[in-house]
Amino acid sequence: MSKKVLLTSFTTWLPHQKSNTSDDLLQEVTKNDSFPASLTALRQLPVDIHQASDLVLAHINQLNPDLIISCGMAEKRSILTIESQARRENDLIKTWVNLPQLTTGLKVTDISHDAGKFVCEGLYYSLLKHLRDRDLQTPCIFVHVPLLSSQNLLDIKSDFSEIINRLLIRES
């Protein structure tokens, strides 16, 4: 049976944004049919913590994915960044994915310890808490995607695809 991967992205939230790079990246990556898994993309989530969380948690409960990768746009970053943790008030939850091992050798990916205090961190916290509270060991990460250009798209797409593949191999 094929592994199931849930990917999420957001819509835009500021008037100058023509698209959300997290959504653009998912559109590019899901064109690729060479993954050893079934990819489900829940794209263009509303930029609202509660609405986005409710939609994603409903998909998790329905799909029961083997891997969850949520994505958001980070206009001021220049590379992919995988968030190590999410916070809500005094509660901090770290991903149980070994991020140093996951990112070793990737060209344009690094680890971040600041998910941004916005809807991205709110969604990530909700996902990690949901999995923790149900004692599920499903790998779950949040990836911030920089602005995409013709100069960085291939490297970013390559690293993101490699992240998916590495996480799938670890779960085999």
From TrEMBL:
Annotated keywords: Hydrolase, Protease, Thiol protease
Signal peptide extent: none
InterPro entries: Peptidase_C15-like (IPR016125), Peptidase_C15-like_sf (IPR036440)
This protein's record includes keyword Chaperone: no
Family: Belongs to the peptidase C15 family.
PANTHER family in UniProt: PROTEASE FAMILY C15 PYROGLUTAMYL-PEPTIDASE I-RELATED, PYROGLUTAMYL-PEPTIDASE I
Protein name per its UniProtKB record: Peptidase C15
Organism of this sequence: Floridaenema fluviatile BLCC-F154
